[in-house]
Amino acid sequence: MVRNLLIAAVLIQGGICSAQQQLENTSFENWQNVGGPEEEPTEWSSIKTSDAGSFINSSAPQVCERSTDSHTGSYSVRLENKSVFGIVATGTLTNGRAHGDTNPENGYVFTDATDSQWNTAMTDKPDSLVGWFKYAPVSGDKAKVEAIIHSGAAQNPENGTSGNFVAKARFTTTATASSWTRFSVPFTYFNANASTHILVVMTAGDSTIAKAGSVAYFDDIELVYNVVGVNELDLNDIKVFNNSQRICVDLSSKNSYEITLKLFDLQGRELLKVNNLTKGINYLEKPKSNGVYLVNISLDGKMVTKKIVINN
Asked: Is 59 left (phi over 0), alpha (psi -120 to 50) or beta?
């Protein structure tokens, strides 16, 4: 698992480009070890790659799988609580690393700040955590998505590390969701300290009392920022979509020609820039690679960023 920082939202104001930090591979399109017991989304990890060593890891059930039941794109992540040797292993996925133990009470996930493979840098201050999920719980169970912005060591459960927490966002649900359902939860900031990392965990069950058989799907996890001084364009004024050959930008309702468009991939790389788009439908060349892309449009000091999915 390679840990990199994803620049996923690009804001343009007065010609200056600023980037906001995001998690990586949050649409779960990229996977490693597909078909094997250590099948995991790239940049994420499960109990099969914990720090407990080969014996415990090999004995642990596979609780994380790639699913073609997705909100956008081709894949989502499927988590399931499974029982082995009379112990229920919670379906868990983290952008840090899992600490495995034969006693579930001793298990946790953590940021390993000394190894880039098991941490995600975060120095920005997002406002909220949003995403999409489906859930089929066994009665009495609860799914969770939690993000902790911190400096220094951090674990979840906190195990004495809460003094390093800068902010936290937590979503839980006990309700069955048979169709893709959006969640949105705010970050609560505990102090004004500078942060260094963000630790995220998603589970299909309620910690150490998880029920075997509960299944959760997650997709399109994002950090949302309250942007001061940047006005958004009305989404109804600009339509962005793609057909079999091109990206289409419909500016039929706009009278101004001073419109700039930029196309970014989810690593923050600028792939295309077009100045002075014309009124009507503009046709742009599509990226050759399938995936999720960001289209940023600026007009008269206002901006909008839209996400599109390319399937060639």
From this structure: alpha
Q: Are residues 215 and 246 in the same domain?
A: no
Alpha carbon separation from 92 to 2, 65, 301 (Å, rounded): 19, 11, 43
Condensed to tens digits (0 to 9), the pLDDT of residues 275-303 reads 777 777 777 887 878 777 777 777 666 66
96 DSSP assignment: S
Domain boundary among 168, 194, 224: 224
Tally Cβ neighbours within 10 Å of residue 60.
22
Query: pTM value?
Result: 0.70
Non-local CB neighbours of 228 within 8 Å, separated by 6+ positions: none
The tokens describing 269, both together, are 């790389």
- The structure tokens listed for 129 are 């955590």
| Number of domains observed in the structure of the chain | 2
Look at residue 250 and give its three-state secondary structure.
strand
Residue 37: cis peptide before it, omega within 30 degrees of 0? no
Q: For residue 116, list its beta bridge partners.
A: none
